[in-house]
Amino acid sequence: MTSPLLPAPPSPVLVVGAGFLGSRVAAAIPGEVIATTRSGTWRGGQPPENVRLRALDILQHSDAQVNAALEGARAIVVCFAAGRTQPREALYIDGAQRLLDACADRAPALARVVYTSSTSALPDHDGWLDDDCEAWPDSARGRVQRAGEQRVRERCEALGLPWIILRLGGLYGPGRGIGRIYRSRGQHEGALEGDGMQATNLIHVRDATRCVLAALRLDPARCGVINVCADDHRARRDMYQRAAELTGAPSPRWAEEPTPGRGVYGKRVRNARMKDWLGLELEFAQHDVATA
Ligand SMILES: NC(=O)c1ccc[n+]([C@@H]2O[C@H](COP(=O)([O-])OP(=O)(O)OC[C@H]3O[C@@H](n4cnc5c(N)ncnc54)[C@H](OP(=O)(O)O)[C@@H]3O)[C@@H](O)[C@H]2O)c1
After folding, report:
1. pLDDT tens digits for the chain (292 residues)?
2. Pocket of ligand 1 contains residue 279 by CB under 6 Å
3. Is the CB of 59 under 6 A from ligand 1?
4. Domain assignment of residue 240, yes or no
5. How far apart are CA 227 and CA 234, in angstroms?
6. Phi and psi for 7 in degrees, rounded to 5?
7. Residue ranges making up the domain that contains 111
8. Which of 18, 126, 129, 142 is most deeply buried (CB count within 10 A of its CB)?
9. What's the CATH number where 95 sits?
10. Is residue 28 a part of any domain in this protein?
11. 127: burial class by Cβ within 10 Å (0-12, 13-18, 19+)?
12. Domains held by the chain: number
């Protein structure tokens, strides 16, 4: 059930991982923000005026450095991502635990933890999947993501910290266009795997940012997992084709032809709670392939 959002998040909010999503979140929060990157620098130059930067590497820094990064925070948004160079398990499970352990002494001052996860924490099921889906994925990647969520939830509950886990679909937007997804999967080197009829679960970075902001304003009594995903679940095949047309790239080739009459299949992530709890009206309900 919808409950009114509080007028504003408590200040300052600490944004851990000011990357593609976190930097936009930090810039959009009304009021004072402390944002961290591993290097303590802002991508693309100077941070916005409301943002103070700190360095934090949750896998490499000492306890004293972690504590210094958290100093003064009244709410925490976690947007760190392992990328290609860090072990996923270490960051998403041990890193999350370390961050929350460092919150133990300051828990009464913290109004909320918003942790960004991924729809890969959901199983690869052919059909709709809800926010409270209890089944775990089979893939090692997805299981790490799910275990990270579980660790966040357990640690927050042990510390009495209000928590929200935002399970994000694939992020796209300026600088990360949809067209790059298939190009990065080697389209020019041969046919893409399968028939391309799997459903897509994506979210534009602007809508994801608005979800984080709304989650920070939730009543502290409200905790849970919220799937963050657009309404559009069109097949990858259609999406890549459209992106190719818009960018003048060659049409994607697929290893297999679609099975006649089968249509779109695979995981479709339901976003009912995103609309209900966060009151979100999607700006990009349909994939904006034009940002490719
Ligand atoms: N990208 C997607 O398609 C996608 C899909 C679903 C969910 N998500 C989730 O969305 C969130 C944000 O993703 P993103 O694409 O914005 O990530 P991103 O652009 O790669 O940014 C990650 C941020 O985390 C920081 N970071 C990396 N390792 C760290 C560490 N060991 N300790 C502390 N900070 C660290 C990075 O610091 P530096 O700037 O110094 O490198 C960077 O600021 C993540 O939770 C991710 O799992 C992403």
Report:
1. 566 898 888 999 999 999 999 999 999 999 999 999 999 999 989 999 999 999 999 999 999 999 999 999 999 999 999 999 999 999 999 999 999 999 999 999 999 999 999 999 999 999 999 999 999 999 999 999 999 999 999 999 999 999 999 999 999 999 898 767 656 655 556 888 899 999 999 999 999 999 999 999 999 999 999 999 999 999 999 988 888 888 788 888 999 999 999 999 999 999 999 999 999 999 999 987 776 5
2. no
3. yes
4. no
5. 18
6. -60, -40
7. 13-176+204-231+268-291
8. 18
9. 3.40.50.720
10. yes
11. exposed
12. 1
Does 58 sit in the ligand 1 pocket, CB within 6 Å?
yes
In a domain, 239, yes or no: no
- Please work out whether the CB of residue 88 comes within 6 Å of at least one atom of ligand 1: no
| Distance in angstroms (rounded) separating the CA atoms of residues 283 and 216 | 19
Q: Is 254 in the pocket of ligand 1 (CB under 6 A)?
A: no
269 lines ligand 1 (CB under 6 A): no
Examine residue 47 and state whether it is found in any structural domain, yes or no.
yes
- Probe target for ligand 1 pocket from 14, 16, 21, with the most ligand atoms within 8 Å of CB: 21
